[in-house]
Amino acid sequence: MVARYESKGRKFEILVDPEKALEYREGKQIDLGEIVQGEFIFRDVKKGLKASPEELKEIFGTEDAGKIMDIILREGELQLTTEQRRRLIEAKKRMIINYIARSAIDPQTQKPIPPTRIEAAMEQAKVSIDLYKRVEEQAMEIVKAISRIMPIKIAKALIRVKIPREYASKTINLISKLGEVKKKNFYTDGSADIELEIPAGMQGEVLSKIASLTKGEASINIIEVK
What we know:
Elements: E1 2-7, E2 10-16, H1 18-25, H2 32-35, E3 36-44, E4 49-50, H3 53-60, H4 65-75, E5 77-79, H5 82-103, E6 104-106, E7 111-112, H6 115-125, H7 135-146, E8 153-154, E9 156-163, H8 165-176, E10 180-186, E11 192-199, H9 203-213, E12 219-225
Helix pairs in contact: 5-7
């Protein structure tokens, strides 16, 4: 598949894996060698016309192929078939729905919202998915759109976990990875406690993981949801 970048009336193309190219645009760390097929920047891929070093320097300010490929991937467009576009847009829609479900709550109940309810509200609001916009950016726009249909807000939950000494040393680092650590304390009896900030929609998932790690022995309190 071709990724194309146009500037000053000229176009530059590279051959890419479309799914990996989109993941790269989302910020995923992927080696360019896994995305780009070949090592050349073309004026026209179909005709095999390679861009000259002079015009690359003029348009991109560099002749470094890696830097130019990065610009094309981040700012260019993918020349997709109708079926490829449909499939990738559907995949992006799933990513956005999952992101919203993990990040948002119903402000009236303070509880997470099922993905099916979010999807239904998106369909009712007739929101469209932009293949090239980042998931987080679109999620915020979509939450605003569907908030006219259902109560919803992006929120964070602050939780405090008290870990018994039997599990503290084995689980504290694993639990730390479940959110943003705000406080962490160790006590002389070997126990510990930790305060984590997590996406509000992930409360059930995080609490379940902590319970699994500590065999249900940890004490978990939700301090606030904001």
